[in-house]
Amino acid sequence: MRIYVCALLMLGLAAAPLRLAAQTPNVQSSAPSAASFQGSVPSGEAAAQTVNLSLDDAIQRGLKSNLGIILSGTQSSAMRGQQLSQLQALLPEVDFKAQEAVMQTDLAAQGLRIPGFPTIIGPFGYTDLRAYLSLALVDVKSLREYLAARHNFAAAQLSEQDARDLVVLTVGNAYLLVLADETRVSSVEAQVATAKISLDQAIASHDAGTAPRLDELRARVDYQSLEQQLIVARNGLAKDKLALARTIGLPLAQSFNLTDKVPYAAFDQIDVDAAIQQAHANRKDLAAMVEQTKAAEQQRKAATADRLPTVNFNGDYGDIGVNMRHSHGTGDAAGTLSVPLFKEYGLRGEAQQAQAQLDTQRAQLSDMNAQVDADIRDTLLDIASAQKQVEVARSTVELANEALSEAQQRYASGVSDNLAVSQAEQSVAQANDQYVASLYRHNVAKLSLARALGAAQNYKNYLGGK
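User: That's the sequence. What structure does it adopt?
Assistant: Structure tokens below.
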């Protein structure tokens, strides 16, 4: 059975902050999804030599090439562009225009027939060099929209930082899964070797006439069953190595070996309340949600400010004449006061939409605060449970191996048939699977705790070393 229980836990923690991008006003479609962190942008070509890959190497590659972090960066750039666009509405706009005109007019075609006056006028022309200035003197709505855009940009930056923690969690989980697969393959290979010894022993006993044909058939079935398990285990290892390569941008054709073997290290109990306080202080996804709520508050104020008057200034100054030697400076200046008089339904609708968005953000922020608490408590429960499972599974492996050795000795002495050997081999296989699975769950739970605390990049402090 493949080990995916904690992978689901990891994906659950990873998916929660990713909801933020979809909830942010005016966010583009490039926002990363949970699936984005399973992909990457590969770089380079596969080398003929096998690459040695440590957990640090894998995570550093992921921080550079993982698709989720790349999309988070582009999302942050998009929000920066939106902030600059909103800022421009508050700044003066200065334009320059140079115009050289040549015209000829047919007065008769215009319906003008004046006795003694030429029907065709021209050609004549002029040169006009002019600068234009436009400035919003009073525009509260644009100011509020700029403040909202600034908060959205801050949220995007925080989400980009949070994406780094998600990459550490995703790559770390993929790395640990491959380690678990390698351990399982080694375990099944050892079981196949043991089953081969039992099969050879059963064949020899049957040939000597000291054991029935049934013992040989039973041993052969056990041996072939383990060979099938070994094929499945090796296939699972190969596929999970491909998945790891996908998350870190390694060419899929590149062969590599994992150099870090994360051992079992018991995790000391930590203070739950202190851990929750640390998470609230450090979680970037929570901080991003706070910024998005502030942005929604500014959008609501902008909707109210739409009722207020606006004051704008427009002016131009330039030099105009038949040519630059025969020209004169001219200019215009105008101030405009605009007051909405009859836009009640439009203004109410805009305010209601902004209020609904604000209420949604506040509700999601409250839920996120509760989710942070739940993440800490869940991961601590998972660590404690997995730690007990490791201890029990390790003892079970020792007992199962002892039972197998006893059954093999009894069969070799002719005291019993090999049914007990077959059952003992199955117990060993099951005990080894449980041990590998519990080790994997324990390490991923500790990695998930680091992410829940907002300290995934300090994962070594939680995994317990190499």
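Residues 375 and 452 are 6 Å apart (CA to CA).
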